[in-house]
Amino acid sequence: MTQVGTQTQQPGPGRTTWEPRIIGFLCYWCSYTGADSAGTARMQYPPNVDIIKVMCSGRIDPELITTAFANGADGVMVLGCHIGDCHYISGNHKTMVRMPLMRRLLAELGLEPERFRHEWVSAAEGEKFSKLVGEMTEQVRALGPLNWPRLLHERGVGHGMDLKAWGE
Amino acid sequence: MGANGKLKIGMYWASSCGGCDISLLEIGPRLLDLIAIADVVFWPCAADFKYKDVAAYPDGYIDACFYNGGVRNSEQEEVARLLRRKSKTLIGYGACAVDGGIPALANLKTVEDIYDAAYHHNPSIDNPNGVEPQPTYASEYGELEIPRFYRSVLSLKDVIEVDYQIPGCPPQADRVWEAIQAVAGGGVPPRNTAVKVGCTDKTVCDECPREKKLVKIKQFRRPQEVRPEPGWCVLEQGIMCMGPATRSGCGALCLKADMRCEGCYGPPANVEDQGVSMIGALGTLLDATTEERARELVDQIVDPVGTFYRFSLSSSMLKARK
């Protein structure tokens, strides 16, 4: 698995400051098309969200979200069709149950709630998409880097880490 | 194998409750068969062996060594490395060695929190001088040393290479016996880092005799609040059963006793993160057609991390609290 977190640890080539790195899982039928319409309409929004297109938001295994954070993402965004609009009829009903539960789980693991966002964006809502990306980027920027790999390193947890004793 | 043709076996107790040591005795009369084919060369819980005895063995002396418990301090790490060197086959035994187990829930707290609860702010503690254990102490007999406490609970495979792992809290006796027979008969699966034995690749639901009525969960209830209807899937009855996200091998023992699965066998094959895998499973199981209803049901779930990662926080994706 490639590390997505390199840019969160150090400013990338040609960058002098840290930029938030947000992974966006977008459903193909509504939200990705919505993002596309934002582009077609030439709306301006920050380039901080790396979009991963999936066929349905119900296909987003919660493990993908923890994988993104564990590999260094500063935020994760899950966007799907509004309830009732799912191309597969009830795919997003699964998302609607999983994501509030993910939000609670991540909060218990100490992640700030602003780092995880779940919204419905239809194919016509390019403006909503660009607004969401702008909002989330600013919220995550205000929080600063998450850098979960460094956190684990500091606690000496995970395969191949230097074990760290308390007081050292 | 020794000059008498017997296997040499060992067992060590690290960061765990001791139930694993007891579970080896759970094989019952078969223990006599075990003694007939094997000599115990290291088992601090059962007989008086010292670390220096093990250090004096030649490398690879122990044929099969069972290590139970995770790694929380420097002593456990040192013994893990020593046993790795002295053992031909090293087996991570039990949920703590495999996935961190219950002690790994301490990764939700910092060491400072743990020391505070253990030595300072706790109703049962009387420590007016605020004494804390120190790694070294200069006594009149010379400098004394205790193991250093690590910042996290680690699974055994995080520290050293492990040949096989037997999950479970504790591993079920029949599976343990099968594993011992396999080691004795040379019928072990190809040696590989941390391949799991004494279990299957499917989930607990696969072995569970209870029937699914294909109804959706209308309300979550805690195990102490309701007596499950016999023969019916307890998850469908609203009791948070970890069966769908837990590896099988136990024979669904808890469910046969009307108790939910707590997830001690860890994540099933091809799943790395047991907790979020359970969240994935719940996505299809709730009786909710509106967002409000979904949130209402989800809010009824008590202690998501403690429930979903009860035995597997060390092997999950995020591993610790921020």
Order of helices and strands of chain B: EHHEHEEHEHHEEEEHEHHHHH
Structural class of the secondary structure composition of chain A?
alpha/beta
- Helix count of chain A equals 6
Which consecutive residue ranges of chain A, at least 5 long each, have pLDDT under 50? 1-8
CATH C-level of chain A: Alpha Beta
Name the shape of chain A in a single word: globular
CATH architecture of chain A: 3-Layer(aba) Sandwich
Count of helix runs of chain B:
12
CATH topology of the largest domain in chain B: Rossmann fold
Order of helices and strands of chain A: HEHEHEHEHH
Overall tally of structural domains of chain A: 1
Strand order of the largest sheet of chain A: 2-1-3-4
Oligomeric state of the chains present here: heterodimer
Say what the CATH topology of chain A is. Rossmann fold
Binned strand content of chain A = 5-15%
How large is the radius of gyration of chain A? 17 Å
Q: Can you put this structure into words, describing what you see?
A:
The complex is a heterodimer of chains A (168) and B (322). Chain A contains six helices and four strands, in the order αβαβαβαβαα. Chain A has helices at 6-9, 31-40, 62-70, 91-108, 126-143, 148-155, and strands spanning 22-27, 49-54, 75-80, 116-120. Chain A has a four-stranded parallel sheet with strand order 2-1-3-4, with helices on both faces. In chain A, strand 3, helix 4 (91-108) and strand 4 form a beta-alpha-beta unit. Chain A is globular. In chain B, a hairpin with a 2-residue loop joins strand 6 and strand 7. Helix content of chain B is 29%, strand content 15%. Chain B is globular and about 70 Å long. In chain B, the strands form three sheets. A six-stranded parallel sheet of chain B has the order 2-1-3-5-9-10, sandwiched between helices. Chain B has a two-stranded antiparallel ribbon with strand order 4-8. Chains A and B meet through helix 3, helix 4 and helix 6 of A and strand 8, helix 10, helix 11 and helix 12 of B.
